[in-house]
Amino acid sequence: MRIKILLLFVLATAGISAHAQQGFPFDNEIRDFKKQDSLHMPAKNGILFIGSSSIRKWTDLEQRFSSQPIIRRGVGGCTLEQLVDYYTPYILFPYQPRKVFIYAGENDIAAGKSGAFVGDEFVKLWAMLQAKLPKAEIYFMAVKPSPSRAKYFSEMSIANKKVKAFLTGKKQGHYIDLATVILNPATTQPDSSLFETDLLHLNSKGYDKWQAVLQPLVK
Predict the structure, then answer these.
(1) What is the pLDDT of residue 126?
(2) How far apart are CA 95 and CA 42, in angstroms?
(3) How far apart are alpha carbons 102 and 78 in whole angstroms?
(4) In whole angstroms, what is the distance from residue 23 CA to residue 106 CA?
(5) pTM score, whole prediction
(6) Where are the alpha helices (DSSP H) in the chain?
(7) What is residue 22's predicted lDDT score, i.e. its pLDDT?
(8) DSSP per residue over 107-161, as a string?
(9) What is the model's pLDDT at position 11?
(10) How large a percentage of the chain has pLDDT more than 90?
(11) Cα–Cα distance for residue pair 209/205, rounded to 1 Å
(12) How far is 62 from 64, CA to CA, in rounded Å?
């Protein structure tokens, strides 16, 4: 009996150790960001863009808004849930930004979560932001309808509607419709010419559409 108990203890300890070594999702990218910060910490009161690969792959974001103190912290294919659960202490709160633009939620839905779930996760993030950055302006960038994820459009619409309704009347909260601007007016479907060949990520013309909407806000 003692041998069995000892064996179970060893196996459990090994599992915990392996999990600790594995870390949380995209932890290698977080380490890279923190290394950058150790060499050159962005100044306080900047404009933070945070979220998933739609931010990570917007590689000329800083150049498009060159007159502003942009901090770009896109993390792989992260979810809004992961942003809430893991990343805020590392790549959000330390910068003490005056504006936070958030693009996340699309990957949650693609992973099987509902639009209502995404809305609830944003409410959690909002509460965290109010506690840590009470003076910051918060902008939720609408979940975009990527052509490759057409089967999830209804849940994406639910997520956008829930977040928009939640932010209505919030003095420092803003919902930004970046979804309809990438639709083809003739078909009301996503314009595939605005996407890379994977039909998931925006190309330069797609980011032109986003920039046009964001321009008056990023200042």
Answers:
(1) 98
(2) 7
(3) 12
(4) 23
(5) 0.89
(6) 2-22, 27-39, 53-56, 61-64, 80-82, 88-91, 106-110, 115-132, 153-167, 204-214
(7) 57
(8) HHHHTT--HHHHHHHHHHHHHHHHHH-TT-EEEEEPPP--GGGGGGHHHHHHHHH
(9) 36
(10) 89
(11) 7
(12) 6
**pLDDT < 70 stretches in the chain:** 1-22
Residue 173's beta-bridge partner residues?
A: 138
Q: Which of 132, 139, 110 is nearest to 200 (CA)?
A: 110
Q: Which two tokens stand for residue 49?
A: 């863009």
CB 128 within 8 A of CB 121: no
What is the per-residue pLDDT across 11-41, written as a single tens digit (0 to 9) for each? 333 333 333 345 789 999 999 999 999 999 9
Asked if residues 54 and 74 have their Cβ atoms less than 8 Å apart, the reply is yes
Which of 107, 102, 137, 136 minimizes the C-alpha distance to 122?
A: 102
- The first and second tokens of residue 46, run together, are 């900047």
Q: Is the dihedral of CA 72, 52, 208, 201 positive or negative?
A: positive
Distance between CA atoms of residues 131 and 181, nearest Å:
33
Question: Which has the closest alpha carbon to 32: 90, 105, 118?
Answer: 90
Instruction: Read off the tokens for 185.
Output: 């007016």
Do the Cβ atoms of 80 and 108 come closer than 8 Å?
Answer: yes
Q: The tokens 């979940």 sit on which residue?
A: 143
